[in-house]
Amino acid sequence: MPNLLAKGRLARWSGVAGASLVTLTTMAGTVLAAAAEHAPDAAHGGEHASGGLPQLNPANFPTQIFWLALTFGVLYYLLSKKALPRVAEVLEAREERISRDLAKAAQLKEEAQAVLAKVEASLAGARAEALTLIGQASADIEANNQARQSALGADIAERLRTAEASIATAKEQALANVRTASADIARDIAGRLAGIDVDQAQAEAAVAAVIEERQG
Q1: Number of H-type helices and E-type strands within the chain
Q2: Each residue of 146-191: pLDDT tens digit?
């Protein structure tokens, strides 16, 4: 494709150069013809003057036309065979380089898009995995907290039962001690005040009756 474009441009430029050379040749011929019309006057004036313009001398016209045509022919040959092909080669190389750069840029863009898609997929997978791990960790923490709360509640209940049993035992022991002490005091008071020797069992029974009456 670049070769066809370069050849097309070369042909177009060659045509333009040829047309330009033809136009210049025609203009040169017109100028020389106009000069030839005034040549008699210039020749008549040359009889009275020692010098004049050689390019306006009709005798020099064929030589000038020959060299003009030869010069334009050489220029046309150099342009069509040397300069324009070189310009076409430069343009072709430039177009090929631009095409390669564009193709490489498109390839790099596709690769970048593919890498970006992979990165986004990896990020999405990492987010999903992280959310799963967070949910599992939260569930484990909640289960551990519930287990700890249950164990703590059972431990507290057991300690409360143990404490209540200890308190009840201590209370019964204290009441027994109070009964015994109260019976001893009652026997001692009865013996000292009334001179009556009260039996220990009777004294304890009397004290128990009084305590039950107070509690009731």
Answers
A1: 5, 0
A2: 888 888 888 898 888 888 888 988 888 877 777 777 777 776 776 6
Task: Report the pLDDT averaged over residues 27-51.
Answer: 50
CB-based contacts of 203: which residues, under 8 Å, 6+ apart? 183, 184, 186, 187, 190
Kindly report the average pLDDT of the chain as a whole number: 75
Domain ranges of the chain: 2-106, 167-215
Check: CB of residue 100 under 8 Å from CB of residue 41: no
Per the rule left: phi > 0, alpha: psi between -120 and 50, beta: everything else, 51 is: beta
Alpha carbon 128 to its chain's center: 19
Mean of pLDDT values over 203-211 = 70
For residue 207, the SS3 value is helix
42 alpha-carbon distance from chain centroid:
86
Select from 15, 32, 112, 17 the least CA-distant residue to 68. Answer: 32
pLDDT of residue 29 exceeding 70, the answer is no
